[in-house]
Amino acid sequence: MSALRPPRPLLMPTYHGHVSSAKEALILIEACLSGQLSHASTPPLSSVQDEVVSSGNVFVYEEFSSGIREWKDGREWGPPSHVGGLEVAPLRPPTQINGISPASMYKSTTKIDYRAHTHHLVAYFSISDALGGTLLKPSFDPALANVVIRRALNVQRSISEADERALEIYLQGVAAQPSP
Predict the structure, then answer these.
(1) Could you tell me if residue 87 is inside a domain?
(2) Interstrand relation of 86-90 and 57-62 (parallel, antiparallel or unpaired)
(3) What are this entry's molecular-function GO terms (predicted)?
(4) Checking CA distances to 24, which of 36, 73, 111, 169 falls within 20 to 30 Å?
């Protein structure tokens, strides 16, 4: 008699909203560390990749416990720009995700080490959702109002006021460029 493996759980986003800065990312990482939100525990499987790359989906995972060494979402991303403490990359054409044109879909990432464990954040957003205010930022979410970022995380990231608006300014510039 062979042992049956339990089915892998579906990959659920850690959060749904817009991570506009390193400070917003730290709020979500802290919420995971304190148990208020859950880390992603499995990598995106090819069967669910279309649902993963959706505007507003945010995934936080811890490298060692999840076994995820590299986040693979099945999409080709352009070269990243360093903006406000995040790496931001546009989706490369000709892919179209959930009716959103590739020129307006972006992925932002960051990572932070805490107690010898690396925590990664991967967030997907469209320019229209990010600039239009349809996605809630963690710092404005009443459910996360009591999250206090521990000093050990803050020390790793010196966040200036300019960093807080850097992504918004970057996206406004992208949105103002004429389409090819």
Answers:
(1) yes
(2) unpaired
(3) DNA binding
(4) 73
Residue 2 lies in a domain: no
d(CA 89, CA 109): 9
C-alpha torsion sign, points 27, 131, 161, 111: positive
Task: Give the integer Cα–Cα distance in Å for 23 and 14.
Answer: 16
* 33 φ, ψ (degrees, to nearest 5): -65, -35
Residue among 62, 53, 60 at smallest CA distance from 28: 60
In the structure encoding, which two tokens stand for residue 167, read together?
Answer: 């992504």
Each residue's pLDDT tens digit in the chain (180 positions)?
A: 455 555 545 689 999 999 999 889 999 999 999 999 999 988 887 777 778 999 999 999 998 888 888 899 989 999 999 988 899 999 987 656 666 665 589 999 999 988 888 999 999 999 999 999 899 999 999 999 999 988 888 765 555 555 666 767 777 777 777 665
Cα separation of 97 and 94, whole Å?
10
91 DSSP β-pair partners: 77
Q: Which of 26, 144, 92, 54 is nearest to 11 (CA)?
A: 54
Q: Does 8 map to a domain?
A: no
Q: Give CA–CA dist 44/65, Å, rounded.
A: 15
CA distance 175 to 173: 5
Residue 171 belongs to domain spanning? 15-175
